[in-house]
Every structure is written in C-alpha cells, then in structure tokens.
Amino acid sequence: MARQAYPYRQLQRAEFDEVVQMLSQGFETRRGRRGAMVHHDTVNQRLRGRRGARMVAITAGGAIPDNADYRVVLEPEGTFIGTVNEDFAVESLAGDIFQLGNLSWRIQRVQQGVVRVEDARGQPPTIPFWLGEAPARSAELSGAVAELRGEMDDRLSEGAGAAHWIESSRLPGAASAQLIEYLGESRRLLGALPSQQTIVAERFFDESGGMQLVIHAPFGSRVNRAWGLALRKRFCRQFNFELQAAATEEAVLLSLGTQHSFPLETVFRFLHPDTVGDILIQALLDAPMFGTHWRWNASIALALPRMRGGRKVAPQIQRMQAEDLLAAAFPDAAACLENIPGDREIPGHPLVRQTIDDCVHEVMDLDGLITVLRRIHAGEIRCIARDLPEPSPLAHEILNAKPYAFLDDAPLEERRTQAVYTRRAFEPSSADDLGALDPAAIERVRDEAWPEVQNADELHDALLTSGFLTESEGTAGRPGESWLGYWRELAESRRAYRVEAGDAHRALWVAAERMPEIMLLTEPGSRAGAIRELFRGRLGILGPTTAARVAEPLGLPAIEAEAALAALEAEGVVLRGRFTTVSGSAPAELEWCERRLLARIHRYTLNRLRAEIEPVSSADFMRFLFAWQRMDPEHRVRGLEGLAAIVAQLDGFELPAAAWESDVLAARCEEYDPALLDTLCLTGRVAWGRLSGGNSAGPIKTTPIALFLREHAGDWLAGKDAPQSSLSSYAERVQEVLQQRGASFFHELVAASGLLATQVEQALGELAGHGLVTSDSFAGLRALITPASKRKPLDGVRRRHRTAPFGIESAGRWALIVAPAAAGQPDPRPTDLYARTLLHRYGVVFKRVLAREAGAPAWRELLLAYRRLEARGEIRGGRFVAGMSGEQFALPEEVGQLRAIRRLQGGGGLVAVGAADPLNLTGIITPGERVPGAVRNRILYRDGVPVMALEAGKARSLVSNLSAPEAGLIQALVRKRSTPALRSYLGLGGVSAAAAPLPRRPRRRRSSTEKK
Length: 1012
Fold this sequence. Notes:
By secondary structure, the chain is α+β, with helices and mostly antiparallel strands.
C-alpha cells in the first residue's frame, strides 16, 4: 500500500519496519519515553493508534515547518499587524522605528513572541530583515548562466566582439558598458571568466594578516554548499583549525588563518570523488542546516508536538525539545568531540537518515559535487589559480554575502571577510597593476627585512635570527657600512665562526649557538630538520626568493631544499607563488616567501593602490584642467577638428564676446585661424548667441556670448528669459521682418524693412545684445563689435565695391533665436545635458565648479542627475580633489589621468590664462582672492598655483615669494600678439603698462610708385 504513493515507490521493507518500530516504541529520553503513536501487534501484524494519537495528528500534523516569527500587535487596540523575524525582534529596542506594510511603527516593548508597537506617524523607518534558507538555482539554470559567461569570455578575447554582441541583445548602452567593464576587469585579473568548463581559485590577504580563498565555480549554491562544507572539514582535519566558509550560486569562500599555507593549485584536488560523501556527512553534522532540518523532520514525524494543552508550543521550546530528541536518537551529534575518536558513528535511526538525506540531496547536491570532482580529476575542467594583492571584482559578491550564504554559525560582525579591503571601482588601465605585487613594495620589504647592524652585538643577534650570513653578504653589509669589523670582534670572542659549507666550500658566518645545526648537515638522520630550521631563519631576511637561491650558500641539492620549504609551508611559515614580475610577465621559476614578509608586501601594495585614489591637491587639479582643456603647450590642438573639440568642451559657456578669440580659442589652438571658426558656423556645427538675455542696446566686447553646438541649441535656448526692456523701433521692425521671412541676408533685410543699412546694422546689434538674433558666421559678431572706423582690408587700402573684413555683409544669413519652450517643450534647460556638459568641461565636478557657470541649475538638481549616472555606472563618485566639500563626480577615464598628473612632478611650467577664461578658478579652487573676469585681466599659474595677475594694466604678485625673476613672469603673463586678421577689433594685444614695451618695427616709407 505504501509503495503505491510515488514518493515511496522505492521504499524497502526494512526501512518501513524501522519507521513502524520508531512510531511504536518512541524515543527513550531522561524524562521517559515520548513520541510513541501506535500499538504494534507483531504477532498478528496489526497497527492501532494509541490514545491521543489522533489529536496529535490533527493538531501537529503537516509538512510545513513552524517558524519563530514574532507577532506585531498595535497598542492599545491590540490589532494584529503582521509578523517579523525572530532575530530582528530580539535585536530591536524600545523606541526603534521600522516599516511593516506601508506604515511606520515605533516599538513600545518586545515580549516573548510579541512586539507591541504604536503608530510612528510617518517618521523615517528602518527595514526589517528575515533570515531563512535561500532557494537555490536549478542545475539547468546554472548551466545556462555558465554557458552565457563562457560565450562572453570568448567574445571578450576578440576585442570589440563583446560590445557588438551585447548591443544586439537590445541591452541599454549604459548597462552594456558597465557589464563589459565588470567582466572585462575580472577576466584580465583571473585569466578567464569562470564557467562550468573553467574554474578559478584566487587567494589574497586581508587586513588581519590572514588570507581569503575564493573558488569561482558557477555550479549553483547546492553544489557550492556541499563543496564549501567538505573543504571546510578537510582543512579542519589537515591543519587542525576550524575556519569560516560561505557559498553562493557563483563561488565558494574560505577564510584562511595564518596557519594555512599550501600551494594554491592543490586546492582543486583536496577532495576526491570516492571519499567526499563521507567527509560531507561528517561536515554537515556541525552545520546549522542539520539542526534546522532535524527539527522539521521531528515535527513532521509527530515526535515534537506543536500543541500541548490546547496551546501552541513556543518555537524556542520546540528547539530545546529537538535538541533533547537528537541526543536520544543520535548521541554522537550532541557529544563532546574531545571524547569521540575519529568520525562520528551515524546511527540507523530513520529520522537521522532522513535528515542527512535532506541535507545532502535537497539543501545540497552531493551527486553534482561528485560529478564536478570527477571531471576535475579527469582533466575535463580547466583549473586556474591566482594569488592577488586584492580581490577581483567577481569576488566582491561573496565577500559581501549575507547570513544566508554562511556555512558556519559565526555572526556577520565576526566574519573575517569584514577585514578585506575592496576598492570601489577599477580603471581599465589598472588591471595589470592590480594583479601583480608592486616591485617597489617588494624591494622595500627586502630592505626592511635585511638586518640593521650598528655594533657587534647586533651582528650576533642577526646571525642568531637568520641562521647564517655568507661572507660576501657580511662584508657588504648595508650600503656604505661593512660589518667586517664587527665580525672580527665576534670571532675573537668566539661568539661566531667562519664555516665552509657544501661542495663549493662557500664561506659562511655562523653564530656559536647555531653551530649544532650546521654540524647536523653532515648527519643523514638529522639533516632534514637542520635544513628546515636554517631555511626558517634565512627566509626571514630575504623576501621572495627561489629554492635554488636559498639552497646555494649551503650547497644543497634542489630536492632537499624543496622538501624543507614544503615542510615550512605545511607549518604555515612560508608561501609559494610567483611574486615578482619581469618585463610585465610572471617569472618562470617558483618563488618562496615568509608569510609575514609577504603580508607586508601585500599591505604596501594596497597602500600604494589606496594612495592612487586619494584626492589630489587643488594645484594638481588645476594642472589636470590645463591638460584636460588643452591649455598647456603639450596638449594644444590644431586644425578644424581640434577647434571643434574645444568648442564642444565649452558648449554653452558664456564669455565676453572679445575674449573668445583673444584668450580662449587662441590659447588652446596652435596657430589659431578665425576662418576655422567661421567654417564650423557656416557648416551648421556651431552657433553663437547670448543665452542669458540682457538689455544692451548693442553688443560690445564685454557682452556675454556663448558658442554652442547646434545639436544642443534647443536645450540651451529652452527657458530663455525674455528681454526686460522694450526694443527700439528699428529693432522691432527688423524683428518683424525676420519673423515673417525667416533667415535672411543683410541686403534682404535692408530691402524688406525699408530702413537704411546703418539702421538695420544698429537694429541687429540691439537684437544680438538682447540675445534675440544670430548669424550663420561668427563674422557677424565680429562686425557688430568692431568700430566702423576699423573695418578695413588687411592691406589697409580701401577699394570700391569690396566688402571689408568682418563687414556686416559677410556674416551670412541672420535669424531669430527661437526658444523651443514657447513651442510647448515642458523641460526648460534639461538638467541631464548640463550635468554631462559640466563633466565634459571639467572632468571632475563638485559644487564649487558652478561658481563660473552662469545659468547653471541648482546643485541639488545636478546632484540627482549625477547620482543617476553613477547608479548606471557611467560616472564615478568619490573624493577626487582635496579641500572641496560635498559630493564629487568624475568621468571614469579621467581618474587615471588625475593620478598620472599627481605622479608627474611639476617642473615649474607656466600657463597664462585670461581672466574671462573658464579656467579662472583663482579663489574658487585655488586659495587667494578672486581675479575679476575682465577681458584685459590675466592670471599666471606655475605648476597649478596662481603666482601673478594682471589687473587694470598693472601686474601684482599673488604669492609672497617668487623664485623666478619678476620680469620673466611678466613676459609670460602678457598676452601674445593677436592674429593679423583679428587686430581690427582685438588690437595688437599684449602691451601693458606693467611690462616693458614690446619693440616696434620701424615703419618703412612707401615710394611714389608704390603709392600709385
């Protein structure tokens, strides 16, 4: 009858009889027999229920386990609100506010099984947590995920293939870039992306000096739990120390102590498929899952009543009764391990057998683990081992895993993973550096480990510690200080001896106390122990070295040296690996290093990496801005595309009209040609106009004008303020003509308006001053701000029927600047565009940067946009510039350039900046007084520090002491001569009352023939 049910189709008669015997005889505890539910008539082979058994089956039956959640009750009404987890309730205090449902509740008191609360009236709450057994990923889903990751590994090896492949899946661009960066950095560090065909083990030090071992194996949490528990038990037996472990769907984590030393490659074969089952069963007996499933099975089997006397038994009482029941059915599970030699003996009790089966085949997947181990031992799975200074990005997930991933009962606050340092983000150029130890750190540790000797006693102490020194090492000592004199003093007092060791008879200095070990080298029975002890001291002063180098002074064969080093490794004294790099690649030879020294090397490497992400000074940030905005001579641009890049970087920034070509563009472009700017405007890529609005009757050199990309014109003009003063009749007439005709040439405006040419020109100037019109070419603005008397050909000769340079006729068409907000666009001046523009302009953005940005949105609005961009992985938040309060954000590619600028020591380079330039950040970024942004004012920076300013034609120092001659600084400060084509409205430039006058070339008189 029982076999007709599908779950029991393979039930054996012996197992059935054991269950019947358990139900009839119950459990013998110190408080008597309990759990007996039936009478078993063995003579007539009949079963009858005991008295009360039916009521127990009705009130305590069911396969759904009880939980220990606390009821939440509203006071004083006594209304039931819901339940919270037992751990959350126990850790909560009176007065705490938490959210349950859509309301906030304040805790009044926590009683046994009940949390009494009152309405918190919308105060900010915390979110309660629930602890439980997390569901595992199925084997099919794990295989699909691993297959996808394997294909991603192949695509990443092809370069741009991964990006095209992800784009074809219709994933958003920001998510695609973030995914490629995350997996690409992991692949560069680990050598491959883990899959079910390739597993990777990485090991790294934590802040406490211990090590963390992460095995990346995407087989799902059921297989990984079994693997983690079995490895934990294997480590316990081999090293006689318990360790913490965790497992997720993608990886297994083991927190190693200072006593765990072994070749990382061997971890894949620590377990054998033939014996892993027994090891796992012994391991799970101490795991929290065994106690939980034992209580569940005991409740299902009615061995633990859920109701007693008409009242529910508290879950805490059920746990205690389950422990008593386990001690009766499985004494070794509750016994003291000190009194149990070898493995625990598993009894044949049905509940014990069922609990083990549930843990091994439901919570974990022992069969899947055996399959994986067989494939590893058969060589079907590729195994990669990497020792890293800090964890890879893939390891961050398991390092920050929550309690559901833990395989032991240590709480979150006691986990050794809390001592692991992880960087917030990675730069594409930092992967190679991250995966290797810093050579400077290795050399520093070697220098620190080498003895410091100032007298004979200290040399004797060094000989005791290190075991021996070669004569060449002792003679050389430290740079500039030989120890030969101290050695002679020790030799005369017979505290040290000179010994010739090995077949080559190498001379060694040995302390008298270490001579017995040297003598034992000739004794075959004691030779191995003597070598081990000598190597122990020797490795303490050498740092990373090879077995051949350690054995060379003693003339030992390689096999004996490796055996001694392996013995030290088993003790946890040394670690093996490939620590140094040669020309960017790992050396072929295996190296050995004392654990203490290797931990120090890792710490120094991390300190160097941390220093890389420390905020730069304001001076270094200014040096970065000079390079970022092409102001320093090394980064200036040329040609049309170079100028287009500069305009794109300054998109939407308003400057005094005359400053654009005199200070800003000319300072960033080699051999600036105004025709290039006209070309950008005429081809429709760039436009000019006043964005802020104004009341000027006509544009002058100080009128704020912006250059902006035409593709962003609608965004920059959205929400543009209307003129606050009325226009003249001429301006109104020309505006009316432009509204009717659209974009028109100058002569068309003259004809259509019925005004004189001078009146139309005056009207255009007034409209441009109010920010209402623009022209196809920048020549239109030049003509409006150039006095009529200075509009002449380049050769200075006036000719009939020829348009003068920068004449109003050469401006192309004139058109009204139309604000799209009037056409129904709801979002004035989009914040996202401004946020991205500021990043493109400055590389790093924080609140103080907005001081020069007229019309920028409020910082709180930009902050929301930057946080969204950071959440999408497009930018990075952090502390990039020292001394600047508030949040800071940067483009990922510029973080590395900031670090490079800091590493590059300043060479006294001078950079002159116009006061109207966006980089006039004196008194904003750099300390000191602000310099007014007038067109003729200038500032001189030396290594990012403002040293001199030119204001109102006079130079003044901005620092107390000038190391360079003042005349040289003034010469660097003065603006260079303008391009000949621009002198008609910019002047010669550079002449100042504070500086020595520039020499003028004598003017040659023209002959009468030339005049004709």
